[in-house]
TrEMBL record:
Residues 9-148 form the AP complex mu/sigma subunit domain. Its main location: membrane. PANTHER family: ADAPTOR COMPLEXES SMALL SUBUNIT FAMILY (PTHR11753). Gene3D superfamilies: 3.30.450.60. The lineage of its organism: Eukaryota, Metazoa, Chordata, Craniata, Vertebrata. This is AP complex subunit sigma. Belongs to the adaptor complexes small subunit family. CDD domains: AP1_sigma. It is found in: Cytoplasmic vesicle membrane; Golgi apparatus; Membrane, Clathrin-coated pit.
Length: 166
């Protein structure tokens, strides 16, 4: 009997070469203490690895897949039976989406526009699974959300902004 198993990501972390966590998305319920410990352990483990080493490692009962782009590491945890190459492709697709949106994304883009980085990730992944593989469709949804946000800001500004009762 064939089982249709789709990749289910446990979490995604983005961190700098200095070990600063820039983005974290958790798809499994964990306490803050557990999240901090996992983040700290994985950041230390990955940063200690040599550049030519394999981008896959077994960690606890999970498979860790990571890739460095410029000064940022993108790290995903998937279940042991999940495909590492598909996970690498998901990481790469997310980087492509960030590049398209920001125009060659860099660490500062993530720092100063973290809400956009999360929004792009949420348009692409839902509950740890890829929901939309078309870059064009993801970018279109982001463009529409940006336009809506601009319209709300314009409407708010046209009405004189926020008024406070005295």
């Amino acid at each position: 009997v064939a089982v249709n198993h789709c990749l289910l990501m446990q979490f995604m972390l983005l961190f700098s070469r200095q070990g600063k966590l820039r983005l974290q998305k958790w798809y499994v319920p964990l306490s803050d203490k557990e999240r901090k410990k996992i983040s700290r352990d994985l950041v230390q483990t990955i940063l200690a690895r040599k550049p030519k080493m394999c981008s896959f490692l077994e960690w606890r009962d999970l498979k860790i897949v990571y890739k460095r782009y410029a000064s940022l590491y993108f790290c995903c945890a998937v279940e042991d039976q999940d495909n590492e190459l598909i996970t690498l492709e998901i990481i790469h697709r997310y980087v492509e989406l960030l590049d398209k949106y920001f125009g060659s994304v860099c660490e500062l883009d993530i720092i100063f526009n973290f809400e956009k980085a999360y929004f792009i990730l949420d348009e692409f992944l839902l509950g740890g699974e890829a929901q939309e593989t078309s870059k064009k469709n993801v970018l279109k949804a982001i463009e529409q959300a940006d336009l809506l946000q601009e319209n709300i800001i314009e409407l708010h500004t046209d009405r004189g902004g926020c008024t406070m009762a005295k």
